[in-house]
Design goal:
The protein is α+β, with helices and mostly antiparallel strands and 1251 residues long. The chain has an eight-stranded mixed sheet with strand order 2-3-4-5-1-30-29-28, with no helix packed on it.
């Protein structure tokens, strides 16, 4: 038993502290109990009643069988904890269960949570390998309701099947039959009430839950909150003839043999009973409680029809969804609207139960059952009672076959363990189907002990001391939605039994080896494992004398029979850092001699090869140890001895330590180079492996190498020459015009290394050594002229070395740029590493992606990199990749609108319209269009929602109000760039992309520029149509105006939105509906008014000077009379008191209908004068006299004016006088109000003169 599997991390409940990673067999006092076959009684005193129990004891706890979701509920509230990876302080990754949702589950007054289970639902995708698609949380309440939730606490559906409290929820899922003839069980969910049992068909439940979950997502996206889920097919049985029922288990469908059928017929029907020809299939249910203590019920299949119950409640809303109106089928989803409303208004109808009488039971008037736990094979069940007994039931025969005493408040679980492959190889039944062992896990909280018992009459194979307040979590099911077809090739990642410790917050799984189910006499493996455990304990002990350690370890190692376990024991011994080298050598030599003396056919070849290789390694270690200085020995020996357990001479698992031990002293000049090389050659290690070790230590210790480059480079050259002169290094038949495998190995190491500086130095050294080797081989050939020797010296190897050196120089400059830390506040992650291999495999775009991620770094280094990559880093490609990097960063954190703004700015800098067009189209389809459509639909319904709800809606698309405004502005600019690029494509030819000569071998995915050039052309009117929508949305969000953007377009316009920009859509044409044009005009007028009001705040984006021109442009596209917009702008500026800007706007806009403008300005002037003469608190005597001298018509007209409509009534009189003058110029003399204007001019001049 262990806390988790060896390949699974520990799961803990955050923020509880973590416990030890393993609960090992030898961690307790009873470790040898199962060896001797004697079960010792644990003398643990029962817990005192005065001690306060943890809060978890009062909670309803359920764990998903996949261990990825834990539900803790108490009364009305619940907490959902989901599995997440995290890194602890030591850098080790571990799985934790962190809180993912908290809230109140109860909806009816007075109801509490009484039971819950977590059901993982299988994925229907073909690529699925057994992981769940999602997990449904099923919760039962004391009101009788059963509600189904997602992992995020979203209510999918609720069901009232009975009006009594829900006692227990249990699930049964599909299991692959292990033997032919075994009845295939159907999936189902069973719900126990005090006097009723409801079983819901698993297929019906699976389809309903998937439909509800999909519908919830669609309803949220479409703006509707109500769902109409399908009905559930269920059966309801009334359990009679038992006084009390507290727990149950649904065994499944079974068929009696002919003899049992005749026996039951004669007992139930008497002498004259008739027997059917075929035994009927029956569903077996077992209940526990009182009177009788255990009851067995049998329901004949087909005796009652399944009920279809309509869901009482889905999501708390009064809206009606029409998304399910088109769905039909056997579930009967098509319901009239009146029926749906009636279901929501009144309490659901509860169907009566079908009576089901007890067939037989285990009567015991004083004993009351507390729980029942069904075995995975559906043949056994464990029952706990109030007498502290655990009873094992044979469900087929209906009898108790075993009982354990002294387990009060016990909790049960089952483990079914398949036979291991190693066991089957040595099993006499290897040709038979794979065997399975069954174990019963009993947790006794009063004693704080967890026990494991073999079935049916096996001994106790394990016992563990745990806390007294733990919870044993046993699901008894796997994934729902799996069948015999979809489960082929799946590996179901589920845990059978888990132990939750509320004190430490640790969640432990119970894992039992198969061999523990076998008796000691028949299981040599059990004995071997015991010897391995004894050896492991000996190696962990400190202070053991070397002689005792050698004799004990040798004895245990030689006594082990199985080669696999013997190999594991030898590796454990060799990996021990405390054992002396002489001890390891003697034990390995003894094992090697023993294997040599055995029959060659009976000896395991891999084990013999391991012993031989380890002896050579140990001897090599001893020899090199003598060559090193004493200081180097003390520094390196402890590190290397821990890695002498390599399985072969390839030293793949200990390259770092072995390389440091062998060569670092030589590279530093502290060890004799030639003696070390001679020793390595005598050890029988191939030169290729030594070369790999040498290059590995050279690359890994780059910093130390660069501290003393001259000395280390000189020693590297000496070592490289010495290794290349070893037999077997460079082939004698090697032709200088072909590739040498020896030098190719050096090049491959340099190409793959991320340490560019060390790789470049190694390449220089190897290039020189290779050139000297080629020259010497050419000179040694007889009969060659001096000229011919010079031509041969220029070989294919040297050409590849030149290319490799040039590539490494490029990589070094690039890596230097990437290692420069970003400026403070810049979004930079971990320093990106690169090598020749990663750049070649990543294609031509890999280099640009790395550069664009570091564009904000030092300019000089960037210029240097661009000079080395003139083609790959051309300005257009660099700007394009920078644009893409910024938009990717924005997609990760959409609240940071500056990333998207920077992306658009970089896109503007791309000079090629072809690349600009492709990048824009890719950005639109990949990142923009979905968010823009979501924003449009949310704005469409925003006028009906509360402001808080609107904020939540913005959060649904991952952005707040400010971020949405910035996003819409960037959308407008992006679509404008797209239209400009589409217009310029035909005028310029597409650019030709090229790569530097030394990087022509790059492979991998196409670069961003290549993808951009492959994009299809866009439909300009459709792009303009979307730009119009985005502009309207941007204006509405900037000025906080309510707008239904889609309502400003007709049906053709709405259907064209959010389509592929490369397609030709049916666009709006002709004259638009006047009512629609009026709505558009009203919105644009409000935008102009809001802009005028925002002018006083220059820091706001709403005060930008381009808003009026944009409104006029939008007006022309929306068929709004632009002259109305111009006049409104001029009047609003005068209304705001901005007379100078109003005059500029009047001149720029060139208002056509000046008569109307004059009339509007005349009213505005009258309002100003009326305020000064009639409504101002600082009225002067002269003003009053002037008012008396005014003509009666003018005076009456001024009194009719309403100055409250002015936003800035206190305007200097000279400005008003100037306005009246402009007004007289605008109005023609034959205008009806021309004389009124003259009177106004006289009144203003008189008032000005008096002031």
């Amino acid at each position: 038993m262990s806390q988790m599997n060896t390949h699974c991390p520990q799961i803990s409940l955050f923020p509880f502290p973590l416990t030890e990673n393993e609960l090992s067999w030898e961690a307790s006092d009873w470790e040898s109990a199962w060896d001797s076959g004697e079960n010792k009684e644990e003398g643990v005193e029962e817990e005192t009643t005065g001690q306060k129990e943890p809060w978890l004891q009062d909670c309803v706890v359920s764990l998903s069988p996949c261990s990825d979701l834990l539900v803790v509920a108490r009364q009305q509230k619940a907490v959902f904890l989901s599995a997440k990876w995290r890194t602890d302080d030591s850098g080790r990754e571990e799985m934790t269960l962190a809180v993912s949702w908290t809230g109140t589950l109860s909806t009816d007054e007075g109801e509490c949570v009484s039971s819950s289970i977590c059901i993982p639902l299988a994925s229907q995708k073909r690529s699925s390998t057994g992981r769940p698609d999602w997990t449904c949380v099923v919760v039962g309440f004391t009101s009788g309701y059963v509600r189904f939730y997602t992992e995020n606490g979203v209510l999918l559906l609720a069901q009232l099947l009975h009006e009594d409290p829900v006692l227990r929820l249990k699930c049964r899922t599909y299991e692959i039959p292990r033997h032919p003839g075994v009845t295939e069980q159907h999936e189902e969910l069973s719900i126990l009430y005090p006097a009723a049992l409801v079983t819901i068909d698993g297929f019906s439940l699976f389809q309903s839950l998937r439909a509800c979950r999909n519908q919830v997502a669609r309803a949220a996206a479409a703006g509707s909150d109500v769902i109409q889920p399908p009905p559930l097919a269920y059966k309801k049985w009334g359990l009679h003839d038992m006084d009390t029922i507290v727990d149950h288990c649904s065994v499944g469908i079974m068929t009696l043999c002919v003899f049992d059928q005749m026996k039951n017929a004669s007992i139930l029907g008497g002498f004259n009973a008739s027997v059917k020809g075929n035994p009927p299939a029956m569903s077996q249910y077992v209940t526990v409680g009182g009177g009788p203590y255990t009851g067995f019920y049998y329901a004949v299949e087909g005796s009652t029809q399944p009920l279809l119950s309509h869901v009482a409640m889905a999501v708390a809303s009064k809206l009606t969804s029409a998304l399910f109106s088109a769905a039909s089928g056997w579930l009967g989803w098509n319901k009239h609207k009146n029926e749906e409303e009636a279901v929501q208004k009144q309490k659901p109808k509860v169907e009566p139960a079908t009576p089901l009488t007890i067939r037989y039971g285990l009567p015991d008037s004083r004993r009351h059952g507390e729980s029942i736990c069904l075995s995975p094979c559906n043949t056994l069940a464990g029952v706990t009672d109030d007498f502290g007994r655990v009873t094992l039931l044979d469900l087929a025969r209906g009898i108790a076959i075993r009982m354990w005493k002294g387990y009060r408040d016990a909790q049960l679980g089952w483990l079914q363990v398949p036979e291991e492959r190693v066991d089957r190889e040595f099993s006499p039944s290897a040709s038979l189907p794979r065997r399975h062992a069954l174990f019963l896990v009993i947790y006794a909280p009063r004693r704080g002990i967890l026990e494991v018992w073999g079935m049916q009459h096996g001994p106790r194979v394990g016992a563990f001391t745990v806390g007294k307040h733990c919870r044993l979590l046993y699901a008894g099911y796997r994934l729902m939605g799996v069948n015999s077809v979809t489960s082929k090739g799946w590996q179901l990642h589920t845990q059978q039994v888990c132990l939750l410790d509320p004190i430490t917050g640790a969640l432990r799984t119970v894992n039992i080896p198969f061999h523990l189910a076998l008796s000691d006499k028949k299981s040599e493996r059990a004995k071997d494992l015991h010897l391995l455990k004894r050896l492991t304990t000996l190696l962990r002990s400190r202070g053991v004398e070397p002689d005792i350690l050698e004799s004990e370890a040798k004895s245990a190692l030689l006594d082990i029979k199985h080669p696999a376990i013997k190999k594991q024991a030898l590796e454990s011994l060799l990996s021990n850092k405390n054992a002396p080298v002489s001890c390891l050598t003697n034990i390995t030599c003894a094992l090697h001699d023993t294997l040599k003396q055995q029959d060659p056919e009976a000896v395991d070849i891999e084990l013999l090869q391991l012993c031989s290789s380890q002896l050579k390694l140990l001897q090599l270690y001893t020899d090199i140890q003598q060559l090193h200085s004493t200081a180097d020995i003390e520094a390196c020996s402890k590190n290397v001895r821990g890695h002498t357990h390599a399985e072969s001479l390839e030293l793949c698992s200990c390259v770092s330590s072995a390389g440091n031990f062998m060569f670092w002293g030589c590279l530093c000049g502290k060890s004799p180079l030639h003696k070390v090389c001679d020793t390595l050659q005598q050890a029988g290690i191939s030169p290729q492996q030594l070369l790999s070790l040498l290059l590995s230590v050279w690359m890994q210790r780059e910093k130390e190498v660069l501290q003393k480059p001259e000395e280390t480079v000189r020693n590297l050259h000496t070592l490289l020459i010495a290794l290349s002169n070893m037999p077997g290094a460079v082939e004698e038949s090697w032709d200088s015009q072909s590739i040498s495998p020896w030098w190719q190995q050096v090049r491959c190491t340099c190409i793959q290394s991320h340490n560019a500086a060390a790789a470049l130095l190694a390449a220089f050294v190897a290039h020189r050594a290779a050139k000297a080797s080629i020259t010497s081989r050419a000179d040694s050939k007889v009969g060659k002229s001096h000229l011919q020797s010079e031509w041969e010296a220029v070989s294919l190897d040297l050409e590849q070395w030149s290319v490799c050196v040039r590539q490494l120089e490029d990589v070094l400059v690039l890596q230097t740029l990437l290692l420069v830390p970003p400026p403070q506040g810049a979004a930079g992650g971990a320093a990106a590493q690169c090598s020749i291999k990663t750049l070649l495999e990543g294609g031509t775009g890999r280099l640009l992606r790395k550069i664009s991620s570091g564009i904000y770094k030092q300019t000089k280094l960037l210029v240097a990199v661009c000079q080395r990559f003139p083609h790959s880093l051309s300005p257009d490609l660099l700007f394009a990749h920078c644009c893409w990097e910024y938009v990717v960063q924005w997609n990760k954190d959409s609240e940071e609108g500056r990333y998207l703004w920077c992306a658009v700015e970089h896109l503007k800098l791309v000079s090629s319209p072809h690349i600009q067009l492709g990048i824009s189209a890719m950005m639109w389809s990949t990142f923009i269009v979905k968010r823009l459509s979501a924003a449009a639909y949310l704005m469409e319904k925003a006028s009906h929602l509360h402001i808080l709800r609107v904020c939540l809606c913005w959060q649904d698309i991952g952005m707040g109000d400010k971020a949405v405004t910035s996003f819409l502005g960037c959308c407008v600019r992006l679509l404008q760039i797209l239209m400009e690029a589409d217009s310029a494509v035909e005028e310029v030819s597409a650019p030709e992309l090229s790569v530097e000569e030394v990087w022509c071998g790059a492979e991998g995915p196409a670069s961003l520029a290549e993808l951009a050039l492959e994009q299809k052309g866009v439909h300009y009117p459709l792009v303009q149509h979307h730009c119009l929508l985005a502009s309207l949305q941007h204006a509405a969000m900037t000025f906080s105006l309510k707008l239904k953007p889609l309502s400003l377009f007709d049906s053709k316009g709405k259907n064209a939105f959010f389509r592929d920009l490369t397609t030709i859509q049916l666009m709006p044409s002709g004259d638009m509906d006047p009512g629609l044009v009026s709505i558009r005009q009203e919105f644009l007028l409000r935008v102009l008014t809001s802009w005028v009001q925002a002018i006083d705040d220059p820091s706001s984006s709403a005060s930008a000077d381009w808003w009026p021109s944009l409104c006029l442009e939008l007006g022309s596209l929306l068929q709004v009379n632009p002259d109305i917009l111009r006049r409104h702008l001029v009047c609003e500026l005068y209304n705001q008191g901005l007379d100078l800007r109003a005059e500029e706007a009047r001149e720029i806009c060139e208002v056509e209908d000046k008569d109307v403008l004059g009339s509007q300005l005349l009213v505005l002037t009258g309002q100003r004068l009326s305020y000064s003469l009639l409504h101002s608190q600082s009225q002067t005597q002269g003003a009053m006299e002037l008012l008396a001298r005014l003509p009666p018509t003018l005076c009456t007209w001024l009194k009719a004016m309403d100055p409250s409509e002015l936003r800035c009534p206190l305007v200097p009189l000279p400005q008003t006088s100037r306005l009246v003058g402009r007004l007289i110029e605008i109005l023609p003399e034959n205008h009806a109000q021309y004389s009124l204007g003259l009177h106004l001019l006289e009144a203003v001049e008189a008032l000005t003169t008096e002031d």
